[in-house]
Amino acid sequence: MKAVLSDLAINLQGEFTMKVTTKDDDKWLEKYLELEGRPVEMKFTRWRNRRTEKQNAFFWVLMNKLADHYGVKANDFYLKFLRRYGRHFDLTLRPYDRKIFVERWVRSGLGNFCETLAPSVAGSPEVIRVWYGISDYTEPQLKKLIDILIAQCELEGVSTERPAPPEANEE
Question: In angstroms, rounded to a whole number, what is the distance separating the alpha carbons of residues 8 and 84?
Fold first, then answer.
């Protein structure tokens, strides 16, 4: 949920009071009533305009069309596409830390994945490349990927039309 932190106060006992402002009244009210007076865990992250549902759907329409055109599985094509055009970062970790990080990263998003770039030799650190799945993309970032898919479709002669929604049965 999107909210704005707008005030912070501390009392003589060292307790903080925070003001949160949101327009998602129903969602916040329901949570507040459920958790009022109970200890909660809080995590703050900066708000980002994530990709839209329509963008995600269109991305997968194009991804599936190109995968069909090339005769490969959509998931395999997706991973290859992200390796070429997607967002990533490199990390150097000890083998034990690498194992834990990779397990958690892959669980954190459907399309998140990692690859080993420089394997460990006798317990030395490993270099891994960490890829973001499209769920972590913002609208402008996913638009760039969609533009690449559209260009590839046009190059291959694959339609970029979205399938028409099913029509209601007329009785």
Answer: 45
Do the beta carbons of residue 109 and residue 135 sit within 8 Å? yes
Return the structure tokens found at 91.
């990390």
d(CA 160, CA 59): 10
The whole model's pTM is what?
0.65
Which residues lie below 8 Å from residue 65, measured CB to CB, with a gap of 6+? 153, 158, 159, 160
pLDDT score recorded for residue 167: 59
How far apart, in whole angstroms, are the C-alpha atoms of residue 106 and residue 153? 29
Question: Tens of pLDDT along 61-81?
Answer: 999 999 999 999 999 999 999
> With contact defined as beta carbons under 8 Å apart, do 145 and 58 qualify?
no
